[in-house]
Design a protein that fits this description.
By secondary structure, the chain is an alpha/beta fold. 27% of the residues lie in helices and 27% in strands. It has 7 helices and 13 strands. The strands form 2 sheets. Strands 1, 2, 3, 4, 5, 6 and 13 form a 7-stranded mixed β-sheet that branches. A 6-stranded mixed β-sheet has the order 7-8-9-10-11-12, covered by helices on one side. The mean pLDDT is 97. Keywords: Hydrolase. This is Hydrolase.
């Protein structure tokens, strides 16, 4: 299955970001990709104005997503991204959505909010309450995670036990001491310990690292972007997952129960 990572720097204006997303969708479709993963919070951002992303939040039937859904209507491409949507108060939800054929086919609200490294996502954002769904793309099952979720192995393990062959991770990974190393180690670990592919796509730009990468079920990085905008393709192989799980049956050999979400 051919997949694509669309890495870019999110602008302040949602109209510009919608145009960028649609361009990447069209390029991925023309290249024959079945799945395109975009970064986290692609609607709007400004590092000089931390509250902008929440103030600019739009509902799922707002103009930003309406344009992307229209662009997906005649396509079999599945596009995954996150955006902030209003929660009915002065806050927002970091919602990950999967688009295909003009419809939202799956949604996941980010469980783990980024209250770390002197940042406080929970000041403006409401955490999700449910384990992400799985969706089918081609012959593979895809589990949804978002950015900071990668630091919590329970979620990746739960999705793998639910049947995921691939984990997607739209992200906006902030630069900082050791942060690039953390990114590589965590993405690789989640792939290897669950014998699944991980597609981790980072926003690039002045604050975030970019560095999107795909790691296979045995911990091999098979595709990678640098620090600038890029559209990177890779081939995923369901047989590679099957073979890895036969050779390294960590899911079958585990001694702990399936992780459950706290109420």
């Amino acid at each position: 299955m051919k997949v694509a990572m669309g890495q870019f720097a999110v602008a302040r204006e949602w109209q510009k970001n919608a145009h960028t997303c649609i361009e990447l969708m069209q390029q991925a479709q023309q290249a024959g990709a079945a799945l395109l993963v975009l970064p986290e919070a692609v609607l709007a951002t400004d590092i000089q104005d931390p509250g902008l992303a929440v103030r600019e939040a739009q509902p799922l039937d707002g103009p930003f997503l309406t344009q992307l859904l229209a662009a997906s209507r005649e396509s079999t491409l599945t596009t995954i991204l996150t955006l902030y949507v209003p929660d009915g108060s002065q806050r927002a939800i970091n919602a990950q959505v999967a688009l295909r054929g003009g419809e939202i086919i799956a949604r996941y609200d980010k469980l783990h909010l980024y209250d770390a490294f002197a940042m406080q996502e929970s000041q403006r954002v409401t955490a999700g309450l449910a384990v992400p769904p799985l969706l089918e793309v081609g012959e593979m099952k895809v589990g949804m995670m978002t950015c900071y979720d990668i630091r919590f192995p329970e979620l990746a393990r739960r999705l793998a036990l639910d049947g995921a062959d691939v984990l997607v991770l739209p992200s906006a990974w902030v630069r900082g001491p050791l942060k690039e190393m953390h990114w590589d180690v965590l993405v690789t670990a989640r792939a290897l310990e669950n014998t699944c592919y991980v597609i981790a796509v980072g926003e690039c730009g002045p604050r975030n690292i970019g560095s999107s990468l795909i790691v296979d079920p045995l911990g091999v990085a098979i595709a990678r972007a640098a620090e600038s905008p890029a559209l990177v393709f890779a081939e995923l192989d369901a047989q590679r997952v099957k073979s890895a799980r036969e050779r390294l049956p960590v899911l079958a050999n585990r001694r702990f129960s399936r992780p459950e979400l706290d109420a």
